[in-house]
């Protein structure tokens, strides 16, 4: 094979027509030779001048220098740090166009990765007001020129971008973050330096319950000692309305993982609460809880529609977190069995079941890909299996065990269209047929999209 020589060089300025958006929200253009160039902040339909930044074998990354002809869908991003902060990628696109782009992203994933050309992908369910939706913020603390900085990381780096207001956080969350940040600076609590592993405060995590107004503040420290703890605590209690829980989380590891294993309750309750539908959930520092509560209700309603329960079914909630989907479905099912790998989330799921008087749901701690095949061998059967895996999707042995259990339906909730498309083609090869995909926009202004779909069993395995 002759070696391909890229037709562009680093530092070169070229003009391009933008024809699409990548799954990361970058504009995509092609040179005359058909060579692909990715350009952050460029939009489909735009003619742009770009400077090539990095050349790889089959594509290049470039910086936007000039918009020669602008897209009708371009808007001024309202957040002043949009272009530097890595939190949002597509605030410069109208919300209607964001939804169209996300639908196309799902269609493309099914076509390219799943080889499923004719998948029906419905228009995403969007938000009426696509701002102030997040109920959780994780703010890293660091040092710059000897001073404390706190904010969000810039895209693809650990450079902290400070902000005074985050437009996708719920107002209570946003206010709490700003307040804690300022107080930590005033009290001169030393922030963590990830280069030399010195300093103390690594992250502040804030979670709120929109239906309960509960607020949890988690102070992540590089060790047990938290200087000026009493002063910080008493001012938090005084100034943050709804404050329900203050936790110190100890994380001594040299790693990017935000939370360590040990939580110490400094004040209040160890959990906060929120509702999904009429089910009340406890949320601890470690537990996964969807970050957009309004859209979660819409997502779960879709799950319920796809599950079409009659009250006679055993339902599996695989990757159940704090048991949210299983407990939401419980009143329409005969029995619910959940599986989750984080022990604390399983404890929360059990407590959630008890607190809501749901006695026909049980939760098992373990890796789904190990527990489910074991259950299948033991003869456990379910009519409906719901899976809601992390971004990497389901392991093949898990899908095999689902198929062997011979359910009528498998409802698949996914935060990554690429792994959903891969797993969809595996389930279709194993005798299940996908009905259609419903994207739900859980993360407006970012490149993420959640999907829910259902696979019906085609042949009876007896
Ligand atoms: C996308 S979340 C879904 C949680 C829940 N269904 C919800 O809607 O809140 C995925 C969950 O899977 C859990 N998880 C990750 N890997 C797992 C595994 N191998 N086995 C079981 N659970 C796992 C995570 O801890 C997380 O709670």
Describe the structure using short key phrases.
single chain; 462 residues; alpha/beta; OB fold (Dihydrolipoamide Acetyltransferase, E2P); Rossmann fold; 7-stranded mixed beta sheet; binds S-adenosylmethionine
Largest sheet: 7 strands, mixed
The percent range for strand residues is 25-35%
Q: How many distinct folded domains? A: 3
Q: Kindly provide the radius of gyration, computed on alpha-carbon positions and rounded to a whole number of angstroms.
A: 24 Å
Helix content: 10-25%
What are the secondary-structure elements, in order, as H or E? Answer: EEEEEHEEEHEEHEEEEHEHEHEHEHEHEE
Bound molecules: S-adenosylmethionine
GO molecular function: 4 iron, 4 sulfur cluster binding; rRNA (uridine-C5-)-methyltransferase activity
Keywords: 4Fe-4S, Iron, Iron-sulfur, Metal-binding, Methyltransferase, S-adenosyl-L-methionine, Transferase
Family: Belongs to the class I-like SAM-binding methyltransferase superfamily. RNA M5U methyltransferase family.
Pfam families: TRAM (PF01938), tRNA_U5-meth_tr (PF05958)
Mind sketching the topology for me?
Elements: E1 13-21, E2 27-30, E3 36-39, E4 47-55, E5 59-69, H1 95-112, E6 136-144, E7 147-153, E8 160-162, H2 171-186, E9 201-208, E10 215-221, H3 229-239, E11 243-250, E12 262-268, E13 272-276, E14 279-283, H4 293-307, E15 314-318, H5 324-329, E16 335-340, H6 343-355, E17 361-365, H7 368-378, E18 384-387, H8 396-404, E19 409-414, H9 417-429, E20 432-440, E21 450-457
Parallel strand pairs: 3-5, 10-11, 15-16, 15-18, 16-17, 18-19
Antiparallel strand pairs: 1-2, 1-4, 2-3, 4-5, 6-7, 6-9, 7-8, 9-10, 11-12, 13-14, 19-21, 20-21
């Amino acid at each position: 094979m002759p070696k391909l020589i890229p037709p562009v060089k680093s530092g070169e300025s070229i003009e391009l027509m933008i024809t699409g958006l990548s799954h990361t929200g970058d504009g995509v253009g092609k040179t005359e030779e058909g060579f692909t160039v990715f350009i952050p902040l460029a939009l489909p339909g735009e003619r742009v001048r770009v400077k090539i930044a990095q050349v790889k074998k089959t594509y290049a990354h470039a910086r936007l220098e000039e918009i020669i002809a602008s897209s009708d869908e371009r808007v001024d991003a309202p957040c002043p740090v949009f272009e530097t902060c890595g939190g949002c990628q597509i605030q410069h696109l109208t919300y209607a166009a964001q939804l169209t782009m996300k639908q196309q992203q799902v269609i493309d994933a099914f076509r390219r990765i799943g080889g499923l050309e004719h998948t029906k992908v419905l228009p995403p369910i969007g938000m009426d007001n696509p701002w102030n939706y997040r109920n959780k913020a994780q703010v890293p603390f660091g040092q710059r020129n000897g001073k404390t900085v706190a904010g969000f990381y810039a895209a693809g780096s650990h450079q902290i971008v400070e902000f005074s207001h985050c437009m996708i956080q719920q107002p209570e969350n946003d206010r709490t973050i700003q307040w804690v940040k300022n107080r930590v600076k005033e009290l001169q609590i030393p922030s963590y330096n990830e280069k030399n592993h010195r300093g103390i405060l690594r992250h502040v995590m804030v979670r709120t319950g929109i239906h309960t107004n509960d607020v949890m503040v988690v102070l992540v420290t590089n060790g047990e000692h938290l200087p000026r703890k009493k002063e910080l605590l008493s001012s938090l209690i005084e100034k943050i309305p709804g404050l329900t829980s203050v936790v110190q989380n100890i994380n001594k590891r040299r790693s990017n993982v935000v939370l360590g294993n040990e939580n110490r309750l400094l004040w209040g309750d160890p959990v906060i609460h929120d509702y999904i539908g009429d089910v009340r959930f406890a949320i601890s520092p470690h537990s996964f809880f969807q970050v957009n509560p309004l859209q979660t209700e819409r997502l779960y309603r879709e799950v319920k529609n796809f599950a079409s329960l009659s009250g006679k079914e055993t339902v599996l909630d695989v990757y159940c977190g704090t048991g949210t989907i299983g407990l939401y479905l419980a009143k329409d099912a005969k029995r619910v069995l959940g599986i989750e790998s984080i022990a604390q989330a399983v404890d929360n799921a059990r407590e959630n079941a008890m607190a809501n008087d749901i006695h026909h749901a049980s939760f098992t701690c373990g890796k789904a890909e190990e527990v489910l095949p074991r259950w299948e061998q033991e003869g456990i059967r379910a009519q409906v299996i719901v899976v809601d895996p992390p971004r990497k999707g389901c392991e093949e042995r898990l899908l095999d065990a689902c198929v062997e259990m011979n359910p009528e339906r498998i409802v698949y909730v996914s935060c990554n269209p690429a792994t959903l498309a891969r797993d969809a083609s595996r389930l279709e090869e194993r005798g299940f047929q996908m009905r259609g995909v419903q994207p739900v926009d859980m993360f407006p202004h970012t490149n993420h999209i959640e999907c829910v779909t259902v696979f019906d069993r085609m042949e009876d395995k007896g």
